[in-house]
Specification:
alpha+beta, Gyrase A, domain 2, 2 domains, four-stranded antiparallel beta sheet, 15 strands, 36% helix, GspL_cyto_dom, transport
Length: 369
């Protein structure tokens, strides 16, 4: 089993050594801190997962040039979305997607450096360092409940975390197709199972350890081989380097031309990457109203599970309408649950109903409430 550490999002600022961390190993999953890890013997090479609240994710225009996308082109394509002192920001460029759009994670350089030093002092040998929202499936829109909030991303143009009070607004902004997988009553067990799936996707996520933050490991065993290679192949290598330099200059000229075109068009387009900032700026009264609606729906779900009337297997939101699929033992239990929804002020419409040996499955559309 792969060993990993998940830094939980803290509600209040804490010293690095006291921040809550979930540790996964062959012995299972447990809650710990860097101070406790200092006194233990850790497994070699740990996967470390950071909360998305530590970062910003930005996506720019589609790259129209030929060949590989250089770091300079990526930075220029994202220049309009980056704010603050560039020297205090640490940019980690992700691989281009199918549309060849430039995207990057933006972190506070000083804070990230302090955290890396804290890991080193605790004896943590980091194999890879990734962001939790970067571990959602890239093939479809996804909203996953983890560590007390919703991670939103996947194939969407955003990577962010929203709390329960922001879920309705986020669902309305994202549009149809985003499925919110409601967790079961045992949230601790749900988080452990979700992390097991996310850890398996870490190889495809962007590693934050790049540039100056990349671990320096000994390369002495390779010095002899490298010397022999240069000795016996000096002339071909020099020619190849000269040719590569010419090709790189030509590619750079193409990059500059394509970036200029993309920058001129970017002024007329709105970026969904700013959704996180807009959600944080939502008016207080609107947020409270949405929070009350979300809380009532969550209470309804919890009551149904507690009384064992039914199980909500899926839930989807689109333009003021909730689409739910419910499974129960009998139609009598489903009727009772439907009556509760109506009592709370929801208008209930039965879309389909099926019965089998295992029970009944009914799809509802709910509005109002």
């Amino acid at each position: 089993m792969r060993s990993w550490l998940y830094v939980l999002p803290a509600q209040v600022p804490l010293p690095w050594c006291e921040r809550p961390i979930l540790q996964g190993s062959e012995q299972g999953v447990r809650l710990t801190t860097l101070a406790q890890l200092t006194m233990e013997t850790l497994s070699p090479r740990q996967l470390v997962i950071l909360p998305v609240e530590w970062t910003l994710w930005r996506r720019g225009e589609a790259y129209t040039g030929r060949g590989l996308v250089s770091s300079a082109s990526q930075r220029d394509a994202l220049e309009g979305y980056l704010a603050g002192d560039p020297h205090s920001s640490y940019l980690v460029f992700a691989s281009s997607d199918k549309r060849r759009c430039a995207s990057a994670w933006v972190l506070d350089r000083g804070r990230f450096s302090e955290f890396q030093q804290a890991l080193h002092q605790a004896g943590v040998d980091v194999e890879r360092l990734v962001v939790d929202a970067d571990l959602l499936s890239p093939d479809a829109p996804e909203a996953l409940w983890l560590a007390g909030r919703w991670l939103v991303g996947g194939s969407l143009d955003v990577r962010l975390a929203v709390d329960e009070s922001q879920r309705l607004d986020c669902a309305a902004r994202m549009g149809p197709g985003l499925v919110w997988h409601i967790p079961g009553p045992d949230l601790e067990l749900h988080d452990e199972r979700a992390l097991q799936v996310l850890v398996e996707r870490a190889a495809w996520a962007t590693d934050l350890l790049q540039g100056d933050f990349r671990p320096r490991r000994s390369r002495l065993p390779w010095l002899g081989l490298a010397g022999l290679t240069l000795l016996f192949g000096g002339m071909p290598t020099g020619f190849d380097l000269y040719r590569a330099h010419q090709l790189e200059q030509a590619a750079q000229r193409l990059d500059n031309a394509s970036v200029a075109v993309a920058a001129q068009r970017s002024a007329d387009q709105a970026s969904l990457a700013m959704l996180g900032a807009r959600l944080n700026a939502t008016q207080v009264d609107e947020s409270l109203q949405q929070g009350r609606t979300a809380k009532r729906l969550q209470q309804l779900y919890t009551t149904a599970v507690k009384d064992r009337l039914a199980q909500v297997s899926s839930l989807e939101y689109d333009q003021g309408k909730w689409a739910l699929e419910v499974r129960g033992k009998s139609f009598e239990d489903i009727d009772q649950l439907q009556h509760r929804w109506q009592t709370l002020g929801f208008r209930v419409e039965v879309v389909s109903a099926r019965k089998s040996e295992r029970g009944v499955r009914v799809q509802f559309d709910l509005t109002g409430g």
